[in-house]
Design brief:
216 residues, mainly beta, Porin, 9-stranded antiparallel sheet, two-stranded antiparallel ribbon, globular
């Protein structure tokens, strides 16, 4: 006799998962708007807006993705600029895997949170200041930034891959019992024709500290 389903980590796993395939019909809309924006860590002007949304059906549940990211840089002189950024993310699928989460840390994320820290829901907003130290073939910069965020307490873990979501409602994992974060970061970077390099450090109100070395 062959069972129609199985139990893994206490969750009912349908037979199609055991067979190793999954078909999820969905509709996806994605767009980017970037007037005057240069694809660099050290933008001195311009705006970028990224929007992504998808909706579909995964087995007996709704599957969706909601992602928003906004960044604008405002020149305040020849060598200085202010940056404002905002972002939000929420995703649900029947089976939780790596791409069911979004990166929350890193230089572009919450200061004090390391790279590859993944959460399923978050809101974040930040303010930054940038000063050009020197110019030439390669420009060098000092960057200061502060960000506030509200995130889900759940992080990506392979052991959670077959566990049920606590809620399928968008942003519910951060709006209902989520964690507030606030952090400061400082960095030194170089922008050259072959790419950008940033060396930075960040700390949040829980005194968690992270060092960032990123090349783009």
């Amino acid at each position: 006799m062959v069972a129609d389903n199985a139990w893994i980590f206490g969750t009912d796993i349908e037979s199609d998962r055991i067979l190793g395939y999954r078909f999820i019909p969905s509709v996806r809309l994605e767009g980017v708007f970037y007037p005057g924006y240069r694809n660099s860590i050290f933008n001195q002007g311009g705006t970028r807006l990224d929007l992504l949304g998808s909706i579909g059906k995964d087995a007996d549940r709704l599957a969706y993705t909601l992602k928003f990211a906004f960044e604008t840089s405002i020149p305040i002189g020849e060598k200085d600029s202010l940056r404002v950024d905002m972002s939000a993310f929420s995703l649900r699928r029947n089976v939780q895997m790596r791409d069911s989460y979004e990166e929350y840390g890193g230089w572009d994320g919450m200061p004090g949170v390391g790279n590859r820290v993944m959460v399923p829901d978050f809101f974040m907003a930040g303010l930054g200041y940038q000063h050009m130290i020197s110019s030439g073939i390669a420009n060098s910069y000092i960057v200061l930034q502060a960000r506030a965020g509200l995130r889900a307490r759940r992080f990506f873990d392979l052991l959670d891959a077959f566990l049920d979501w606590e809620s399928m409602t968008p942003f519910s994992l951060c709006l209902d019992g989520g964690k507030w974060d606030f952090g400061f970061g400082a960095g030194y970077g170089i922008s050259s024709p072959v790419g950008d390099v940033i060396l930075g450090i960040g700390m949040n109100l829980d005194l968690e500290t992270a060092v960032y070395i990123e090349i783009r």
